[in-house]
Amino acid sequence: MKMVILSGDDIEAVEETAEGLLEGDDADEKNGGDVLVAAEMAYSLVFDAESEMTVFEIAVAEAGTYVFFTEHMPFEFEANEHFFKDADGTDVEPIAQEPDMDHDHDHDHGHDDHAHGHDGHAHGEHDPHAWLSPDNAAVWLNVIAGKLSAADPDNAGTYFANAAAAREELEAVSADVNATLEAVRGLRFIVFHDAYQYFETAFDFPASGAISIGDATDPSPARIAEIQGRVADESIQCVLSEPQFNPGLVATVLDGTEATTAVLDPLGSDLEPGPDLYPQLLRNLAGSLASCL
Q1: Contacting residues for 223 by C-beta, under 8 A, at least 6 apart
Q2: pTM (2 decimals)?
Q3: Can you tell me the distance from the alpha carbon of 177 to that of 181, in angstroms, rounded to the nearest whole number?
């Protein structure tokens, strides 16, 4: 895993420098026990596969604020120990942090390219539907276990064991979803709600775009004609709506096209709350997609 340590009072002020270093070909390889310093260079951290923990020492030349950039969020690697401690072994918490999806260049670049095909719907700077990526869910499991353990240390082992079991289940779910989607990869679909970019990225199954029709009023004849033209021109095989859209409205929009339609529910609103909800939610999304295509 690559890491860059820079002196700076603000993440954004040194972000461009850090990203250039992380994306470069040069990195100083460091093994457990080696010393890292704040400098304009990238480290490549090598973890000991035979050990439960690999520890690196950070030498601070002078007091100040330091910014750490990593290819993965450090808490992904937490088990029973916090990822950052001072010389006395006391946990050190960051005064600010940003999620890895904001600093991972490959993810951002792919997301930008993908977003160019999505029009008429936006959620601001960040897509809030992050739970639709099982990779995000796997990270959150460890974070949740850590928070629960801090509040209830006597049961920390149980919390982390449950998180580990859940991560294994997510791997199985991801395999099931990929198997379901494999037969229809490459076919074209669009969505009425641009809520699935995390799912699309996680399973390499991109939509051809998003079309906003609104869920409160009927679209105008001109808007219907525009959507129908796009479906025809781009050879769209499937148009996906959600439970809040009037089925009659969807039928009107697709009248005269050869596209099929299906309903996706990114919230799993009809699923029974409990440990099976999230795995079933992902499987349902894949099943609806595959049956529509």
Answers
A1: 213
A2: 0.56
A3: 6
